[in-house]
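Q: How do we represent a protein-ligand complex in a form that can be generated token by token?
A: Start from the inputs.
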Amino acid sequence: MNRYDMFPHIEDCMNMTLREWLLFHNVMHRHYTRYQGRKVLKPPFDWIVLGEIIEDTRPAVIVEIGSFEGGTALWMADFVAAIKLDCPIISIDIKDLTNGLAHPGITWVHGNAANQTVFDEVKRLAGTRRGMVIEDSDHKEHVTSALLRLYAPLVAPGCYFIAEDTLCEFTQTPPFPGPLGAVKKFVAEHPEFVIDRSREKYVLTYNPMGYLLRQS
Ligand SMILES: C[S@@+](CC[C@H](N)C(=O)[O-])C[C@H]1O[C@@H](n2cnc3c(N)ncnc32)[C@H](O)[C@@H]1O
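Then emit the structure tokens for the protein with S-adenosylmethionine bound:
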């Protein structure tokens, strides 16, 4: 038996519901999804979609709100280099959990992303580049609302604001109220953004209704 053989096998899971599978994955990706040894706190199917969005929309700067260990930022920096896209990554966290990770394509910003001074610094770094934003911080509705208001203007037409973990409303897991309410209010007031459900093509997503495409 190898060290991964503690996990359930497919023959034991054939009667799992989609809800059970999603909750199972919440544990799996929190502990076992890594890039170059650093946790990537997203399930693999959303990771694939993230790459597809970057390839399809070719942003010139990506702002990630919530760096955690920096696994996603590191992967994005390597990925944009691999597809020859000039696209710096700006990753913000209230704590520094990256343990000294350095990459020429990543700028770390430390502080509360909802603070105007932190936003001003990110805006200065992003300049007039064609922007994309990923909101993956604490997922409380009022926080996501504030971050949508503040950071959505950095998103260029044809690019995305990804509001992560909107799934919690569907699985009825905390936080309540969560980011989906913030997304719904935001798009109702901002017709320039549409919820692009085609990015949920695998059905299995932690971001249902969270892929917001800026049309104009
Ligand atoms: C879900 S993790 C981010 C995961 C990361 N995006 C990834 O894909 O691996 C959430 C991170 O957001 C940070 N955070 C929470 N509230 C924040 C805030 N108001 N401003 C900046 N960072 C925040 C936390 O410290 C934590 O590291």
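The first strand starts at residue 34 and ends at 35. The two ends are 55 Å apart (CA to CA).
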